[in-house]
Amino acid sequence: MAETISLCMIVKNEGQSLRRCLNSLSGLADEVIVVDTGSTDSTCEIARQYGAILHHFLWNDNFSDARNASLELAQGDWILFLDADEELSSDSRETLIRLVQDETVEGYFVKIKNYLGKEGWIETVSDLVFRLFRNKKEYRFRGAIHEQIADVILENNSKARYQIAEDLTIIHHGYLDEVIKDKDKKQRNLMLIEKELMLNPTNRLLQYHYGVELFRAERYAEAANVLIQSATDIDPTTIFLPKLIRYIVMAQQSSDQLQGALNTAALGLKLFPNYADLYFYTGLILLDLKLYAQARNALSQALSMPEQPPQYSSFGGVRGFRAYYYLAQIAESFLDEEEALKYYLCSLRDNPNFTHALEHLVSILKPTKEPLYTMECLEKVCDFCTPAANRLMGDIYFRHGAYGLALHYLDQVEAGFPISPDIKLRKAICLIQERRFFEALRLLEDFSLDSPEYPIATVNRLFCFWIQHRPQKVRPLWQELHALGLEPDTEHVISLFPAFSEKTASSPHFILGPDGMSLLLDIVQRLVALKEINRAMYFLHALHPKCLTEYYSKIAQIFVDYGEETRAIPFIQSAIERVPSAKAHFQLAEIFSHLGRLSEAEQHYKQALQLDPDTPRYYVRLIELYTTRRQAIVNEALQKYPGNDIFKKLSEEVSSSDEPAD
């Protein structure tokens, strides 16, 4: 006779999720028990539509009591319990039917795939949970939160046998950022666990869950202490021990206990030598400590690990795209762009949605200076055949100020999607930057007064006319924007357009906040990209000098990105005068080197190295500079003393040192 299954659930305000869950068990569960703890939305009506047995439960801050209320109503041979934000994977249906026919098993640990993150960047983390067991009256949940039943079954039946349910997977959506925010799960869970720990202060599982919740609440030092307490003298066969060790490492790392984190990871690897996450986090910590060779070895070890067992709850990408990404970061630290490109490409091949790698790839290829080369390189290795992929590339190039490339890809988006307001706005900006003013204005004039994008569209219309030297169009648009009631900083920046057009004697020295500076620097970047250098300087000169101090390096980089290195020099020199930093000296040295002013470049590379002797790129550049200068001196000597054996030998030595090592 076929075994029957009761699906048991507790719910509250799950109207958006419940249908998905119940659909996944349609035709499998012989009955559905829904215990509602106070819903005020459509949850109860949806449950009735699916024929569920609905029971109302007065919430008492105890998940076990609510779970047990559902068990009291269940009539099936087996209990499967799910939350409303979970579902049974579509390929698990036949597996579930097969598993409940095994007469030798009392319960199953099931693989759960947790979805984490937010729209645009979602990843998965797997774990093992005890969710399927025989329905017996003595089997009841225990614990106010993170309720348990596996131990209770063993206490009542010492011969009970558990198995891992191979090929059975639950999908959990409840860790997505918007779900956690909506339900305030972090604060609720902390409160309930703290109450439970007062009753059971030595319960290791509760301590573990409490430490995890503290970690999620970003109380890292507290989390590390609680988790270490949970791990002290623990049975090495405890199923959650691998996760516990990893969370200790993460909490110690996040609270700057770096050596402690390394020690914990090393201890964990003695117990679980194939645990990829521990190698991965060891690599990150060593990278924080600037121990590059050791970090590289640890990350390479993570890549070499086998498939991780579910109880490790391994984070996605530690054996792939994440490890490749940090190997690329190490390569960039040594200015080895070829190696960095290789690893970023490996990262993207493992996970095409990992945009951090793509952003760095684009940055290395310098799209503002070499747009065609950048596009050719990426088109050889990346697939841009979908509107979504073209949208992604358009957005990335737009952020990098490569407006021509951004326009090329945003144009492709229309083939698959109706043009959205944000794409239309970006396209218009790119058209302005390409000096295709008429086309840009056609797009910008499509925005109606009640559109949220109307103010920024109008600013761009004003900018478009201003670039074309049409002051008769600039002032009316400025007046229209003024009438909209702009923020003071925005008002200050926008007022500079008519002041310039009407040749006002001198522009005021504004003091702007972060939002105002962001708008002004965006205008400056676009002007530099258009080679409107005098106009860009006009906007910068309108600022009070103290307003510029925090932005010297950023302003300099704008000029560098568009091939205006000489203009960048005074800004970096001002930054160094204000607060000498290795990064500023290196930025200036790179400009001098590019301009062929090698003595000045050498001076600033040395200053960077003196201020930060642990950064390898400063050594790399000095070595390259000295090699270049040595070659120039040898060549000069050979011209003066042709055929001289000593100078010939020195020239051969320099040439051989330039060849790549095997």
Automatic annotation (TrEMBL):
TPR repeat start and end residues: 582-615
Source organism of this protein record: Desulfosporosinus lacus DSM 15449
Protein name: Glycosyltransferase involved in cell wall bisynthesis
UniProt xrefs under CDD domains: Beta4Glucosyltransferase
Domain of life where this protein originates: Bacteria
InterPro entries (UniProt xref): Glyco_trans_2-like, Nucleotide-diphossugar_trans, TPR-like_helical_dom_sf, TPR_rpt
UniProt xrefs under SUPFAM superfamilies: Nucleotide-diphospho-sugar transferases, TPR-like
Residue ranges annotated for the Glycosyltransferase 2-like domain, each copy included: 6-137
